[in-house]
Amino acid sequence: MDPIRCDLFVADLAANPTYTALSYVWGVSASEPHEVNCGDFAISVTANGHSALVHLRRKLGGFIIWMDAVCISK
Question: For residue 31, is pLDDT > 80?
Fold first, then answer.
């Protein structure tokens, strides 16, 4: 399986961008985290978040997603 790769960017919500939102977990990860390659950085996501991204990539190809566990961080 190819690694998940992404880019982070600031979107102007007033321009009504098209995107999908994924809110999948809050709190401590229950299992070993997976990594998503985001530019030059590796971002940890939970196993179920990674599974959702893999499934969406298979179904949609490239897509824009707002993922709370990535966009809202400490």
Answer: no
Report pLDDT for 44: 85
Indicate the residue type of 9. F
Is residue 64 within 8 A of residue 18, CB to CB? The reply is yes
Name the DSSP letter for residue 33.
Answer: -
Q: How far apart are CA 64 and CA 33, in angstroms?
A: 22
Bridging pattern class, strands 20-22 and 65-67: parallel
Sheet with 41-45, edge to edge strand ranges: 5-6, 34-38, 41-45
What's the mean per-residue pLDDT of the chain? 83
The rounded Cα 57 to chain-centroid distance in angstroms is 11
Q: What is the pTM of this model?
A: 0.76
